[in-house]
Amino acid sequence: MKNNIKRISELTGFSPATISNALNNKRGVNKDTAERILKVAQEIGYVSSVKVNSIKFVIYKRDGLVVADTPFFAALIEGVDQACRDAGYDTVIYTINQGEQEHRLRIQDIIRDNSAGILLLATELTREDMKIFEHTRCPLVVMDAWFENMAFDTVLANNEDSVKDAVNFLFDKGHREIGYLSGNVRTRNFIDRGAGYRKAMAEKKVPLNPDYRVRLTPTMDGAYKDMCQYLGAGPKLPSAYIADNDIIALGAMKALKQFGYKIPKDVSIIGFDDLPFSEISSPGLTTIKFFQKEMGRIAVQRLVEKIKTNGVINSKIQISTQFIERESVKDCNKYEI
C-alpha cells in the first residue's frame, strides 16, 4: 500500500498525505486534485484493490411528489434489502432531499467513498441532477430512470412499450378517443410513458387532441383536486384515459365519480404500477403491473457483479410488465340494451 501511494505521489506530484486524504474521501482536498489522484490510482490498479463491503441505497428526492411513502417504494426497498442480505452485503439507506442546503456535500461524501457500492433511486432526477454522479468512484447502478448518452448501468420498467400495449388494448375494446392523465412533474418514467402513448396513437393514425391531455399533481389528493378543477369547466371527455400511474388514476377516478361520471360506462381508465389499492378500488382499476421487488433484486445482482468483476461495461435492463385487466375499462364492441 505504501509503495502504491509513493508511486502515485511520483506520478502526480502530490504529497502522500494529500493522496491518502483523497483516496479516503476526507474533506479538504480540491476536487480537481482528488480526480487526478483517483485517475492515476485506477491506472496503476490501486483503487481496484479496495474492498467493497457494503451497499449504499441512495434515495434522491427532487420534490418528493413521486418518491413518497407508497406501497411502490416500500416494495422496492424490501426487494433491495433482501437481495443485499442474500449477497452478504450490509445495506445503508441514504435519503437525499434536493431542498436541503448541504445536499451536494452529502452526495460528494457518498460518491467519493470507494469502499461501498451505490444503488441510486433516480426516479425524480433530471439529466442535470445526474451529472454529479458521473464522478462516482465506486460501482454504481441507477434504478427507475435512464438518461441517453450518459454512461450508467440502469434497471427500470419497460415503460414505453407497456403503455403502447395498453393503448392498443383500448383500441381492441373499441375506443378511439383516448386521453392522457399526465403527471405535471415530468419524471423520466412519465416522459417514456407519454412517448408510448403518442407512438401508439400515431401508429393507429389517430391525431392527438390536446384537450384530452390533463396535467395532474402525482399525489392522490393533488390529482383529485386538479381533476375537480378541470371537470368544473365542463370539458368534453374522451371515452378512455391512460394515466401515468395508479395514484394519478385513482385520484382522477374519485373526482370523476364526484362529478357524476360512471366508470367505465362514461369513461374508462388504465393506470400503471398495480398498487395494492388498485385491486380494491371501485371499480377495480385496470393497470400495468410493475415488479418492484424484482427491480430491486436485479439491480443488486448487477451491482454485485460490477463489484466482483470491476466491470466497466454498462447495460440498460428493462423489466417486462404485466397487463392486469379489471373493471375500469368498457368494451365498446359489446351491444348495449
What does this structure look like?
With 337 residues, the chain is α/β, with parallel strands linked by helices. It has 2 domains: 53-157 and 292-320, Rossmann fold, CATH 3.40.50.2300; 159-290, 3-Layer(aba) Sandwich (Rossmann fold), CATH 3.40.50. The protein contains 12 helices and 12 strands. Strand 3 (116-121), helix 6 (127-130) and strand 4 form a beta-alpha-beta unit. The longest helix is centred in the last third of the chain and has 18 residues, at 292-309. The relative contact order is 0.13.
Low-confidence stretches: none
Mean pLDDT: 89
As a whole number of angstroms, the C-alpha radius of gyration is 24 Å
Residues in β-strands, percent? 15-25%
Q: What's the main sheet like?
A: 6 strands, parallel
- Placed side by side, the strands forming the largest sheet appear as 2-1-3-4-5-11
Q: CATH topology of the largest domain, anyone?
A: Rossmann fold
The N- to C-terminal Cα distance equals 83 Å
Task: Give the CATH H-level superfamily of the largest domain.
Answer: Response regulator
CATH architecture of the largest domain: 3-Layer(aba) Sandwich
> Helicity range of the residues?
40-55%
The helix tally amounts to 12
Top-tier CATH class of the largest domain: Alpha Beta
Question: Could you tell me the number of beta strands?
Answer: 12
Based on secondary structure, the structural category is: alpha/beta
